Amino acid sequence: MITHVENGGRAKFELRPRRGVYIESPEPASDDLSLLEDFDLGYRTLCAVLYNYVPTSGHPGGSISSGRIISGVLFDGADYDLADPAARGADMLCYAGGHKALGLYAMWGLRDEMARIARPELLAEGKRRLLLTDLLGFRKNPMEKTPLVKKYKSKFLDGHPTPIVPFVSVATGASGVGMGAAVGLALAAKDLYGADAPRMHVVDGEGGITPGRVGEALACAVSAGLDNLIVHLDWNQSSIDSDRVCGEGDKPGDYVPWDPREFFQLYDWNVLFVPNGHDMKAVYGAQRRALALRNGQPTAIVYRTTKGWRYGIEGRASHGSGHAFASEGYHKSLAAFEERFKVRLPAFTGEKTPENVEKVFFETLMVIRAAFESRPEIARAVAGRTAAAQSRFKARAFTPRPEAPSLEAVYAALDPAKPPKECDFALGKAASPRGALGDALGHLNRLSRGAVLGASADLAGSTNLANINTGFPKGFYHAVNNPGSRIAAVGGICEDGMGAIISGVSAYGAHLGVSSSYAAFIASLEHVAARLYGIGQQARRMVDGKPFHTWVMVNAHAGSKTGEDGPTHADPQALQLLQDNFPRGISITLTPWDPQEVWPLVCAGLKARPALLCPFVVRPNDIVPDRKAEGLPSVTASVKGVVPVRRVKGKATVVLQGSGVVSLFMRDVLKKIDAKKLPVNVFYVTSTELFDLLSPREQEKLFPAELRRHAMGITDFTLPTLGRWILSEQGRRASLYPFKHGLYLSSGVWERVAEEGGIDSASQWKAILAWSKTGAKVKA
Questions:
Q1: What is the mean pLDDT of residues 561-586?
Q2: pTM score > 0.85 for this model?
Q3: Which CATH number does the domain 639-777 belong to among 3.20.20.70, 2.60.40.10, 1.10.287.110, 3.40.50.920?
Q4: Which CATH class is domain 36-396?
Q5: Which of 434, 466, 512, 644 meets the CB 3.0–4.6 Å disulfide criterion with 460?
Q6: The Cα angle at residue 479 between residues 476 and 484, in degrees rounded to 5
Q7: Edge to edge, what strands does the sheet with 270-274 contain?
């Protein structure tokens, strides 16, 4: 509603009615929480201890201000089984920014302690627990084991949490990505289980919701009807540089004008406001009220807190730092705990060596342990609530909804030699790789009852992502109104947030998440989410040994072949951002030449089980070649990553990469090479990473290193993407690529753009003719 109009103006519109509700100061809990208050005192003290002994750990303030919020989720609202951190169907908790890792580790370690003291039957096996002694490994590298870390086999806990930690589903850290991933996890859970889906609890601060990708994620949550999503916002107003991040009252914020309540209301979320986020009864009461809401909207609980509450350093000063090591301020922060529990925590003395610091750190942890052992009623209260969470979880008896997606059916259908009829193209007819990819994923989706769940930057039709929805209800996914659709709406043209959301969909492990847009945009805007996803999947596999869950990032309209859109949209740089830029096995890029290769390459890519599969597909149609008639290898040869087109006795070699240059070469240049019987070997690249997965012996047999030392290249992309194949300086100078003339290419029909970039048929022939005479003479 417009509330202020200047100069006698008239309001011309009103904000439409909100579906979300706003609740100010929900009724507080009425039960006795005094023992949980004592637990919280231990938690805040442990946060101070962690920062003291791991002073590069940062963020004690936000860890402390969010403690009671997390306590409410773990010990009052969430349904889960402490003995089974990976249990499908359990409620989830995501530290969206990851900056409060110190607090996460402290909370997890103390929760384990309470169960150990009072209810050991609740505990998981050792590697699936986070023990108090694991805190010794906080921010330590496996290469620098100190004596007690080695003795107690402590986990090495990163500065931001990853799934190596129990009950952590995704790696977070870059602001905003965790929120999107949490939305994706909630979406996947909702789709798998239907109305009674597990809840996704998300913890973040007001600074963490300022990135634009968060708005994209919040819009998706509403569009999809994710009423199983609850954001817990620790609104302490303090960031690294500001103590007024958001607007509050009649004063604007330093960074954004809104306060968090307005922000969530704009996106039509339910909003509950807790004026004092350190009042435990108010916190627990608000969370219970949120769980009781049943209006189909996601919910945000905004808690007004003080960063560094009762730590002795408050506000932004406690954001990334705390008390100096073993200082008077540090010991003062321990005083309340020492008085309440009648103990004295050790003071550090002597030389500050890693071994001595670790020794006193360990002694401090043991005093905290003994303090709680002397007050078993606290452990009984907390462990009793943990047991209740387990009972609620088991009572809900989660089972996937009828006709739920079956991801296993996707992997059972992957046979490169047996394309479905949708991908069995008539020879001599026109087709496009982007259409072939959409058809391949659509076929897998129908076989799996909808295990392929995707999103596109308002380009579902243009990039052929819409093909995955063939046979499913039209329109976008909504949990109530259109649950059968396989395409989620992500706020419109939003590659950034879309990547984070789809990473969460894939991380849940029940779907093949697919995101789609122009390669020029998606490779860069989703790169941060992709990197975090790779880190998270690596960490999870280190724990459970299971294959990666694959996220498919469709780089459509790839390279200069999208010529009419010009340099802003037809950027050759996209492949360079993804190829060879991840640890081995994390990411696989695909660069098919023609539509026939898409199915076998998708099969090979998915069977390799990377965390990230990145097909690069072009928009224009091409004539489907008759490979047998043209003396070319079969389409299944593409699955090895490099296809040998011609082999001769000589050493001079040409390597091609990209649908555009390969199409021109096959149409115009190859017949000239054959007619003149040029002594050149010819290869084209379909996937650098699939080639990497071959044994060294297979690699050498397929594409000998000797030939790579005598190779030049021609690519749709950039010179660095040829680096694996062109090993000589002479070969690099002779290579053709769109940026060779030092310019972004202009708009126009693809063949004119190729001519401008010097990668057209005539330029290819000229360069290859010259190389046939000089390539064999390269000095390796």
A1: 92
A2: yes
A3: 3.40.50.920
A4: alpha beta
A5: 466
A6: 60
A7: 22-24, 270-274, 299-304, 229-235, 200-205, 92-95
